[in-house]
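Exercise: predict the structure of this protein bound to adenosine-5'-diphosphate.
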Amino acid sequence: MKIGVLTSGGDAPGMNAAVRAVVRVALDRGAKTFAIYEGFQGIVDGGDRIQPLGWNDVGGILQKGGTVIGSARCHAFRERNGRLQAARNLVQHGIEGLIIIGGDGSLTGAQALQNEWPGLLAELAETGQITGEMAERYQSLKIVGLVGSIDNDMYGTDMTIGADTALHRIVDAVDAISSTAASHQRSFVVEVMGRRCGYLALMGALATGADWVLIPESPPNLDDWEGKMCAVLAEGRRVGRRDSIVIVAEGAQDRHGNPITSQYVKQVLEERLNEDTRVTVLGHVQRGGSPSAFDRNVSTQMGSAAVDAMLSGEAQMEPVVIGIQRNKITRASLSYCLQKTWGVAEAIKAQDYEQAMALRGRSFRDSFRIVRTLVRALPHKPEPGQRRLRIGVIHGGSPAPGMNTAVRAAVRLGADKGHIMLGVYNGFRGLIKGDIREVDWMKVGGWAPRGGAELGTNRTVPSGSDFYAIARNLEQHNIEGLLVIGGWTGYQSALELYGRRENFPAFNIPMVCLPASINNNLPGAELSVGADTALNSIIQAVDKIKQSAVASRRTFVVEVMGHFCGYLALMGALATGAERVYLHEEGVTLDDLVKDVRRLREGFGRGKRVGLVIRNEKANPIYSTSFMHALFEEEGGDLFDVRQAILGHLQQGGDPSPFDRILATRLAARCVDFLETQIGSDEPMSACIGQLDGQLEFTNLEDVPRMLDVEHARPKRQWWLDLRPIARVLAQPGPNGGD
Ligand code: ADP
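Solution:
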């Protein structure tokens, strides 16, 4: 089968990863791919704008922003006549299926082409532009869409290609602006993209701790919204906030449909608050740059799924769109998803904001609600006579970026419900010593973007007489519920207390564990806070390492963290185009190494320039990173040399990625709700939280040991191992070595 692939509409980081996956997976399945350059313009023009793509043609593009096969807006394709020419060119090239990576506009165009296809072919045959035989042979056109759009504005996928990278750009910019704004006590209005979708603005505000946000789907519900916004910002100043940041979506509007521009917001702040206010319109910065780890890996999976849908006949009857929903790749009817997408735009236009928010889905609505609480200058005052719960917050395990974000969200959301939030400093060591202090609303100001762990964390697991000390401290501080934000040793510590609740009544309180570990090895959670940041640190380092080898023939052995869990290694390999990954889950044998040496020698013998293998730190105790280095160096002979890079602690550091900040905030919100319902119940439950099969769920702490391979401290079932076949296909050496 011959498949055409094109990128259309606004470019988005991650499109290249999708094209690479489409080409390589198609070749692996025995199909052939043609690049259609410059989007729909390329099909309309035909000729040399449609060209076969080979394995090596898509080498070295994974880390590139934009789209290497070009994109364009094409007026001709909006007309039937343009689509007629497109049909002729496709048939003449023998292309039976199209994989289209673009926004809802492009996918609408694709749907139109498919709807008209029989009529177009009949006309081409009648006018002698194609033979009757050809019209018969190509009577159906299969279409699979991938949503490439930084706005995240399409129904049918939780994330569109490019949205995560755009959030990285926004978060980096707002973090930078916050520091200069705080220095001068200035206000900043930051305008982000999103004409009909407030996703980037909302999540940008959630991730950066901005002070106000304006989105198209849910305009401020007061006529004098300006007064409300200014009152909150002024109150924030009064209680000590040094900066005010307002994030405005490009398409923000008031309840009557009048646009709210960033300039207008600036004018309001200057006039009403008398504040020195600056506007930053982020513009095309949001579109550009190297794709994030998430965009590379999700686009790769989507590209692979698109080929499967194409070849399985799924797209035979009607166009399908590939999405990711709840961490799983999905296929849905394109026309259905387009209708729902237009539904949001229509609802906004008709000023039916309830409907617009309903169509955006639950996680969007929850996030909006959370942001509205977090932006408050101060929490709501407790109701008279309300019982104020005393909730402890503690870390356990190694530092994970996003720990501070989770603490901030828990403290603010808890305080807003009237509760007293107590920080336990220095993990379980601090709980043993009694290092416990109230943490209030303002204390956690500025914690959302901060890496590290302000409360302190370590890997102490209590034992022996520690339990008496802990029981005494819990009682002394009258702690009624405990939120443990951390990694496996944090979970272990919670389990130790839980197991002793018969002997120590103070332990008979609800505890909830929030997964925060770069290793992503926690039971009951498909993704833990910190893993995405670590993965992004890995790919940035590996991209640089690969670039360093321009003038030499070299193989790199890169060692990544993860303890016994290969998540970072496998996902890092998928996102950097490594040709081999060593995981403890699979083990490493001498036989493997011999084969790998042979493959490397063959590749470099055919002209390959850079080799990359990624090794989990505990993949095998004997075949260590330095062992592999020495082995490959010796066997590489004159063909290639070898360098090793042990990435080390840069993986635990850095400010949390947008994804980790969002995850940390959402999990913390649910944990506070959980503790609130459990405290005071006759048989309080203790649990860990996590996304499981796509839902945020609580797993009873009692079940945790059963879900775990305790010796290796990793879940028995690890969903991401299912991605190994794709990683293997993409890593095969191309005919000329490839990358
Ligand atoms: P995006 O795909 O990013 O939403 P556009 O809305 O600009 O970007 O659409 C990209 C291209 O898709 C357009 O230039 C045009 O060629 C095609 N297209 C968009 N809408 C339609 C339509 N209703 N019918 C046919 N083609 C369309």
